[in-house]
Amino acid sequence: MAVRQGGGDPEANYRLKAAIQRAREANIPLDNIQRAVQKGLGEVGGADFEAVTYEGYGPGGVALLIKVTTDNRNRTASEVRHSLSRYGGSLGEAGCVA
Questions:
Q1: CB 59 within 8 A of CB 87
Q2: Please, which residues have CB within 8 angstroms of residue 48's CB and are 6 or more apart in sequence?
Q3: DSSP letter for each residue of 7-59
Q4: Is the dihedral of CA 8, 9, 11, 13 positive or negative?
Q5: φ, ψ at 62 (rounded to 5°)
Q6: Which residues of 39-63 are buried (b: 16+ CB within 10 A; e: fewer)?
Q7: 8 A C-beta contact, residue 71 and residue 49
Q8: What is the pLDDT of residues 18-71, one digit of tens each?
Q9: Could you give the 3-state DSSP secondary structure of residue 63?
Q10: Continuous segment of H or E residues that includes residue 84
Q11: Phi-psi domain of 27 (left: phi exceeds 0; alpha: psi -120 through 50; beta: other)
């Protein structure tokens, strides 16, 4: 997501530079990092990720805005719905919390 928002140059894109630094701290190989940057630039085939916001209610009626990045809206919606209902919450309609 950092590559799509600010480009593939870590010196010009602070978010990408920070993401690479976190990846290096987690001992992710440099080849994997470079492949992820290339996917973000669209040079290598891969999933098309998008940012989605879900609204719902948690236990006790607490309002929640849930922001996710996903390659499959349907699967993510069902997983969010399942997680909320598992703990006594529910997924709401668009605009119910905002």
A1: yes
A2: 71
A3: -S-TTT-HHHHHHHHHHHHTT--HHHHHHHHHHHHTSS-----EEEEEEEE-G
A4: negative
A5: -70, 130
A6: bbeeeeeeeeeeeeebbbbeeeeee
A7: yes
A8: 999 999 999 999 999 988 888 888 776 666 778 899 999 998 889 999 999 888
A9: strand
A10: helix 73-86
A11: left
DSSP state of 62: -
Higher pLDDT, 43 or 17: 17
* Tokens encoding 45: 């085939």
Token reading at 39: 């996917």
- The CB-side HSE value for 79 (13 A sphere, CA atoms) comes to 8
Among 39, 27, 51, 28, which residue's Cα sits nearest to residue 3? 39
